[in-house]
Amino acid sequence: MGKTAVYPGSFDPITNGHIDIINRGLRIFDKIVIAVGTNPTKSALFTVDERIEMIREIIVDNSRLEVATYSGLLVDFLAEVDACVILRGLRAMSDFEYEFQLALMNRRLDRQIETVFLMTGSKWFYCNSRIIKEAAAFGGSVRGMVPDDVLMRLKEKFPLMKENNGRKRNKV
C-alpha cells in the first residue's frame, strides 16, 4: 500500500499555486486526495459542486489524484480515506503560525496524523484565492494565476474582469 496524503482547502477557486503544491506533492506521495472543505462560517463564491468540477477538469486522467468533499474534523476524513498525512502549502510566516497550530491540534486529535508542509513556489508566493477573487471582482486580470478553465468561470461571475493586463507602460 502506498502513502496517501490529503490536501485540504476551500479551493474557492483552485489556483496555480495549489496546482504547484499538488504536482510537487506527487513527487513525495503515491496518491493525493484533494479535499474540498465545507465551512458554514465562510461564504464561498463557487458552490462545492462547482469547485469539485473545476478541480476534476484540471486533474483529468491522473489516477494518483482524487477529489472529495468533507465537513467536520479533517482527522476523521483522513481515517475515511485511509490516509495519515496532511499536505499543506506555506507562503509566509503568518501562514506558518496558523498552520502550525492546526497541525498540533490535528496531531493531538489523532497521534497517527503527520502534517507535511511544502513552501509555495516563489512564482506563487503572493497568490491566494481571496486575492484572486478580489482582483477579479474589481475588474483586474488574473490570467496566469489560475488555470484557463477557472479563468472562464471567474469571468462568468465577474463580467467586468479584464482578460489580460491591458495597461501599456510608457518608455522612458
Layout of secondary structure:
Elements: E1 4-9, H1 16-25, E2 31-37, H2 48-58, E3 65-70, H3 74-80, E4 85-90, H4 93-109, E5 114-119, H5 129-137, H6 148-157
Parallel strand pairs: 1-2, 1-4, 2-3, 4-5
Account of the 3D structure:
The chain is α/β, with parallel strands linked by helices and 172 residues long. It has a single domain, classed as HUPs (Rossmann fold, 3-Layer(aba) Sandwich). Helices cover 37% and strands 18% of the residues. A 5-stranded parallel sheet has the order 3-2-1-4-5, sandwiched between helices. Strand 4, helix 4 and strand 5 form a beta-alpha-beta unit. The mean pLDDT is 90.
Number of strands: 5
Q: Order of helices and strands, N to C?
A: EHEHEHEHEHH
Low-confidence stretches: none
Query: Could you give a short account of the major beta sheet?
Result: 5 strands, parallel
Question: What keywords describe this structure?
Answer:
172 residues, Rossmann fold, five-stranded parallel sheet, alpha/beta, 6 helices, 5 strands
A few lines on this structure:
The chain has 172 residues and is of the alpha/beta class. It is 37% helix and 18% strand.
